[in-house]
Amino acid sequence: MASVQGGKRLRALCVHAGYLLSVEDDSQISADSAEQLALLGSATEFYQASALVHDDLVDHSDLRRGKPTTHVRASQSHLATDSAKLSDFGTASAVLVGDITYALALECATEAVREHPAGMQILRDFAQMTKRVAIGQYLDVVLDMKTVNQSLDTDRPIEVINYKTAGYSVIDPVCLGAQFANISGSRLSALWKAISSWGVAFQLRDDQLGVFSPASDSGKPAQHDLVEGKRTYLLALTLQLCSSSERKLLERLYSQPIRSTEDCLTISQLMETSGAREAVDNKIDELYQQGVERLAKLDFPNSAPLLDLSESLVYRTR
């Protein structure tokens, strides 16, 4: 399954970095705690796999990490020759595989906190994380139904990011790890607020890579967000910054059911020449620095591992 092969295990690393906020280094983690922490990290990765399988289905993605997505691979492996049956089998397989990996995530999370004094609260927060992603996925689908003229507002894609990806990609895993190290209450809330900007920056970077990174690096179909007409923050900024004639061109291109390779090249060039790409770069820098400054004020014993990880998350190249 492409959603669990070749991944960077970023969420598990976030769990680990969150735990290390309260300890000086790995040598202070007992063998039992290390095992339970690994299970908690695995839970976030299984959930990531589940979310990707379902997201690929919703977004009609053919590739994930350079390999066929679950629904595509399933439809290709079925013996039926009827195209409708093949499509139905692929869809059903993706729904069920996503559900299975979601169940594995819950199983790992439950086992990880079985003897932890804050175990029930950690599980509640894990459940809240998955609920927010589902809400964000729905908001994303709704946003994609809007016309280009309705996509000028940059607040809407940021709302989608806050629900759909910022939490479960960065903020939640870090806070789950911190909770495992017995950080709670106002201290945990302050941590959440401090690193929330990194979650948004992570997705803004992902959106940029989806447009300007070669498919060989991203592992996804070339410029898939443009082909499918995703209403991203990058697109909203482009619409705000381009000329009226360029906006009309974008309106025409996005009114089509799907965009050609030539269309995508035109759109990506407008994102560049309008200054939107540079503006997003600046926004990412601003959000990253905001998180660094806020985290420093919390004065955790060992924030260096999280700071190092945050930089690699926000400024990754693939």
From TrEMBL:
Keywords: Magnesium, Metal-binding, Transferase
One of the GO BP terms on file: isoprenoid biosynthetic process
Molecular-function annotations in GO: metal ion binding; prenyltransferase activity
Family stated for the protein in its record: Belongs to the FPP/GGPP synthase family.
Transmembrane segments: none
Listed PROSITE patterns: POLYPRENYL_SYNTHASE_1 (PS00723)
Cofactor dependence: Mg(2+)
Name used for this protein in its record: Polyprenyl synthetase
